[in-house]
């Protein structure tokens, strides 16, 4: 039996297109993070970026379950006393749907330089149009 070692030159990165209309934010973000890491491939290894590129369209039509639109907050702090800002996810989803989805996926990736490199392969667009038609992304339907 031989152990197969994945090398950087052996990695093939594909392009996927995901439609977020009607999808639940957290469930969809976890599946997108799974694809960005490359865990869906048999050649997955933890120390290489073997994931695929993901283009997400209709991010403004993503849904949140329960009362998360009003009760869940995104916090920012300026590192000064009293410098905390809380933004409800309902307001954030209405104003910046791309950033809302990016934050959800970012927190599901490793907090290392490799995780930040994986996040650069994610493209999120609020509407149905995207400029990546030349890459011929494969439509992907997510579970859940």
Describe the protein's topology:
Layout: E1 15-19, H1 25-37, E2 53-57, H2 68-71, E3 73-77, E4 84-88, H3 89-95, H4 97-106, H5 113-119, E5 122-124, E6 138-140
Parallel strand pairs: 1-2, 1-6, 2-5
Antiparallel strand pairs: 3-4
Helix pairs in contact: 1-4, 3-4
What does this structure look like?
The chain is an alpha/beta fold and 144 residues long. Helices cover 28% and strands 18% of the residues. It contains five helices and six strands. The strands form two sheets. The chain has a four-stranded parallel sheet with strand order 5-2-1-6, covered by helices on one side. Strands 3-4 form a two-stranded antiparallel ribbon. 22% of the residues are buried. The model has no long low-confidence stretch (mean pLDDT 95).
């Amino acid at each position: 039996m031989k152990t197969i070692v994945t090398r950087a030159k052996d990695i093939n990165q594909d392009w996927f297109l995901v439609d977020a209309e009607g999808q639940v934010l957290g469930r969809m973000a976890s599946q997108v993070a799974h694809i960005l890491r490359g865990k869906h491939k048999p050649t997955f290894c933890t120390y290489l970026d073997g994931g695929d590129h993901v283009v997400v369209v209709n991010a403004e039509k993503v849904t949140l379950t329960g009362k998360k639109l009003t009760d869940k907050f995104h916090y920012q702090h300026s590192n000064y006393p009293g410098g905390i800002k809380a933004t409800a996810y309902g307001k954030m989803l209405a104003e910046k749907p791309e950033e809302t989805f990016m934050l959800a996926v970012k927190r599901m990736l490793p907090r290392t330089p490799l995780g930040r490199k994986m996040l650069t392969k994610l493209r999120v667009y609020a509407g149905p149009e995207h400029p990546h038609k030349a890459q011929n992304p494969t439509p992907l339907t997510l579970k859940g």
